[in-house]
Amino acid sequence: MCGIIGYSGVENSVPKLIEGLKALEYRGYDSAGIAVFTENGISVVKSKGRIANIEKILDTEYPNLESVCGIGHTRWATHGEPSDRNSHPHGTDRIRLVHNGIIENYIQLKKELSACGYSFESDTDTEIASKLIDLNYKTSGDPIKAIKSTVKKLEGSYALGIIFDKYPGKIFAARKDSPLIVALSENGNFIASDIPAVLKHTNRYYQLEQGEIAIVEKDKVTVYDEFGSVANKEVLTADWDVGSAEKGGYEHFMLKEINEEPLAIVNTIRPRIKDGLPCLDLPHLSDEAIKAFKRVSIVACGTAMHAGFIGRTAIETLARIPVKVEIASEFRYRNPILDKEDLVIIISQSGETADSLAALRLSKERGAHTLAIVNVAGSSIAREADSTLYTWAGPEIAVASTKAYTVQISLMYLIATKFALCNGRITKDKAKEYLHTLLTLSPVAVENALVLSAECAKISEKIKNAEHLFYIGRGIDYDIAQEASLKLKEISYIHSEAYAAGEMKHGTISLITDGVPVIAVCTQDHLVEKMISNIKEVKARGAFVLIICKENMQIDKEVADEVLKIPVLSDLFMPIPAMTVLQLVAYHTSVIRGCDVDKPRNLAKSVTVE
Ligand code: AGP
To answer: Which of 120, 197, 219, 503 makes a 20 to 30 Å CA pair with 334?
Structure first.
């Protein structure tokens, strides 16, 4: 989703804004722009397309543009097509504004503004917010009063960065339901949507809370709470270093992040094992509290929801508690039945996904205990949940989630083991065995899976021209198939579907014709024979079959066109190395097809609107 950056300091803001916007590219965008103070008022440069377009305009039309204060934006279109005129910043000669979020009542506000004589250049909801601020600023002459009376009328979500012509050197910021931080450095202060945008300069930051308004100046930051009093803010420190947000020699962030999986597992799991046993260290989730849960719901979106499928299988298998996995955007409008005997686990890499956040709030309202599994420290979901477990994967920049998924499922295994122990379903020795697999064997299995990268590229060669493709599996292999399919389609644009292998013959097998690739995930000993029958069914109808199976499985040559054998763990843990391999298949397919691997079309990293 949109990215915001702002800088007020002693150095030229223009390169800082451009560099900050580039660091936010991973969020997904289709246009960009900046607005900076100059001697002649506020200068705006904006364009459809990549940030390189802005750089070109700066080079040719504004070669000497220097300014110590400005704001910048990458836009992911919601209201109005990607175009120069719809790009941010919006506003008037008096004020310029950048916005992340959605103003839901913009049509009504537009009518009111039209009645006051305003006209509009863009199709955006953001322009309406900017003109409303302009109107209130014209009336009061006071930026804070103008912002306050504006946000009172805004319905929806927003993170705003605003500059006012008569207040050079000051950036005003406000937020509700969209992320925004204020970062502090020796040579000036920043606003940003996310930490990577400022990591080159500082790792110290404030999290702006709901309803707060900040004034950011070169040597001072003042934050007002929703009642207008000066807020006493805690300075947070991000433990991500600059290198972790750079490619470090890899061709793409996605490949780098897949290669970081073994370390991410260790970093996330090791601190949570004491004397070989799980230690969640969550004050509100005592062993007694865990025992009292009658049901678990896992609610999330996309890849994070697919991690929930693995969680369901792990928790139900080990702890024998019923688990439902729900799509957050459906859950929130489904009037879910929840009470204090329910645990709702919200999984989110970014911690800012609008639907997951809404699902969390709804679950709390209904009395369920909420447990967040989140990668970004201090994010909204992490702060609002009753209990939070961080995944310590480091920043994930590629839009396609890889290492975040791997650590999410690793935590699900840890939770399942903990719950099984609390419920008396497994012995301490058994728990130790599972955690040994998780902490010691699985990072090695992933290392060995990474070695198969060239083999994965060969599979990609075979499927690169496919129009349609199927992933099939049974049990936890079907859970894996669903994530593998999403990964492939989001970055290679090949249409793919994941199917429960036994379900194909109930309709979908009619789509199997000569040469249609079917990737069969086959890692479970007790299901392998059933899988082979299903594989034969598609093979008999012309499918080009690729089997992903364990190293120690014997697969009859005639059953498949290609077999890729992957490192072995005990069956329940096979999703860990299997997904690494399937992520690599998706990665190489995207590269071979010449797609933008890290920034696939139409997608955003952090989905902060419904
Ligand atoms: C992952 O590859 C996707 N781009 C996407 O499905 C993502 O997992 C989803 O939007 C949820 O994001 P979150 O984990 O930040 O909540």
So the answer is: 503
Run means of pLDDT, 10 residues per run, the chain, 610 residues = 92 96 85 94 93 94 94 90 93 95 92 95 94 95 95 93 96 92 96 92 92 95 92 87 74 95 94 96 94 97 98 98 97 93 97 95 97 92 96 93 98 98 97 97 95 95 96 98 98 97 92 96 96 95 96 90 96 98 98 94 82
Active site residues: 2, 605
Q: How far is the CA of 98 from the centre of ligand 1 (A)?
A: 24
Cβ partners under 8 Å of residue 251, min gap 6 = 591
CA–centroid distance, residue 470 to ligand 1 (Å): 21
Residue 215 Cα to ligand 1 middle (Å): 32
Phi, psi angle pair for 83, to nearest 5°: -160, 165
**What distance in angstroms lies between residue 407's CA and the mean position of ligand 1's atoms?**
14
Q: What is the CB < 6 Å shell around ligand 1?
A: 301-304, 348-350, 353, 356, 399-401, 490, 603, 606-607
487, 400 contact by CB (below 8 A): yes
Q: Rg of the chain over CA atoms, in angstroms? A: 25
Sheet holding 221-224, edge to edge: 90-91, 95-103, 156-164, 171-176, 213-216, 221-224
- Best substitution site from 252, 301, 381 to test ligand 1's pocket, by max atoms within 8 Å of Cβ? 301
Which of 353, 388, 582 gets mutated to test ligand 1 (max ligand atoms within 8 A of its CB)? 353
Are 492 and 593 in contact, with CB atoms under 8 Å apart?
A: yes
Structure-token match 């369920």, residue found:
368
Segments in 96-221 forming alpha helices (H): 106-115, 125-140, 143-153
Angle between helices 575-592 and 453-463 (to 10 degrees): 50
Q: Whose CA is nearest to atom 6 of ligand 1?
A: 302
CATH superfamily of 453-592: Glucose-6-phosphate isomerase like protein; domain 1 (3.40.50.10490)
Hey, what CATH topology would domain 253-449 get?
A: Rossmann fold (3.40.50)
Q: Residue 594: enclosing H or E segment and its boundaries?
A: none
CA-nearest residue, atom 5 of ligand 1: 302
Fold of 3-241: Glutamine Phosphoribosylpyrophosphate, subunit 1, domain 1 (3.60.20)
